[in-house]
Write the structure tokens for this entry.
Amino acid sequence: MRIGFIGLGRMGANMVRRLLRDGHEIVAYNRTAEKTREIAGEGAVPAFSIEELVGKLQAPRAAWVMVPAGDATEAQIEELLLHLEPGDTIIDGGNTNFHDDQRRHPLLKEKGVRYVDAGTSGGIWGLANGFCLMVGGDDDAVKPLEPIFRSLAPEDGYMHVGGPGAGHYVKMVHNGIEYGLMQAYAEGFEIMHASDYRLDLGGISKLWNHGSVVRSWLLELAESALSKDQDLDHLKGWVADSGEGRWTVQEAIDRDVPAPIITLALQARLRSRQDDSYGAKVLAALRNEFGGHAVKTE
């Protein structure tokens, strides 16, 4: 297939490489022209504007947008709509809020343009391992694109999960679960790191991946990180969140579904960004007031 691809960041560029490797023709565009030239050197057809990208595609066209969710994605979709025609398709592969998908779908449908949302997981390892794809959209929009999805995904790593917005909805919950899993690993390894035993945490990570019920790819990544420096002295304990955890918690609240683990994992990330928590100071002050417990002063 020939498809346009917008956004050549860490994931986007590797997605293009995987598609090229499987024999697809990719017209690639990135706001930074150097990245476009780089991927052109690997076999992609370069485009240096959205208009040029659309012009190098044959109807019915398909353009995959792989840029940060929010304003950047909105801007790219709006610009695409200036050049696309009825029967063309836009695929949003970023971490978009599913409410945005539900809003966009009818607006694009009025113009005759199909819309597909593709929740994408795999990170920087996707080129070698494949990308897990959770795809939402109407059947007539998704079906023609399945050769692309199957090239990007490993075996059994692609699924058309439902109608418009369903792909990003499933990816949102996927990332919420990821928050909880990562937090559990983090707490367990912190307990062992604080132990009186001189434990090889990288070795334990490797051990647990052989027959243990907690084995996982995340644990393989823990093994990789902890084997290099189990004290992690080169890192600051500041953890970002890209939005999906917050959206998962909000959806749980909206649906009256208790989700304490995911909620607490999100709160732990927020706490990580405070160098000195005022709330912790209040706790220390209260303990000192009611019981005379020791406090540390600056």
Observations:
- The chain has a mean pLDDT of 95.
- The CA atoms of residues 174 and 244 lie 9 Å apart.
- The two ends are 64 Å apart (CA to CA).
- The beta strands are 2-6, 25-29, 45-46, 62-65, 89-92, 114-121, 132-136, 158-162.
